[in-house]
Amino acid sequence: MTETYRAFVAIDLPESVRFALGALQEELKSSKFRVEWVRPESIHLTLKFLGDIEVARTDAIVGAMTLAAKGSTQLALVPSGLGVFPNARRPRVIWVGLGGQLDHLKSLQQTLDAHLADLGFPSETRPFKGHLTLGRVKGKIAVDRMQAALAKFNAFEFEGFEADRIILFKSELRPSGAVYTKVAQVNLD
Length: 189
Hints:
Layout: E1 4-11, H1 15-29, E2 35-37, E3 45-54, H2 58-69, E4 75-85, E5 93-100, H3 102-117, E6 132-137, H4 143-153, E7 161-163, E8 165-172, E9 179-187
Antiparallel strand pairs: 1-3, 1-8, 2-6, 4-5, 4-7, 5-6, 8-9
Helix pairs in contact: 2-3
């Protein structure tokens, strides 16, 4: 039997940003939303979800990451604003948006997606929207309370950070939540 693992490529966050996101989650919890909150230490910026991959393909994936990182300098990003997917009437995901070098981020993601497509991974069909997932909604949420939370936190902004590498993560789903392990990292030039 072929050995596989669930994987994704992402940008990791500094501890200071994770701490600030955790504080925001605590404030949102006071709204009594029925949400499965992501543990702050697990929050990251996903560039590409790969699904279950064969261990033997790891080197090829790291090669695609290396090609995508060539000529891509560090990114200055700023976590800012609060949003939901797909909309405030039927929220499924609560997230923090990003400001900063978004064109550069989008270019990096598209280049990575193209190099991974060369390996047989399906290209993304939806436009890339860089975000940091805070939680996944479980059940219905009162629209007025969600709109109030979005309005309250829409203008906030955390300290910015420099993203200087992309990371291949292994994801293990456990009853206590997903556990992410770094498999490989590639520095941005």
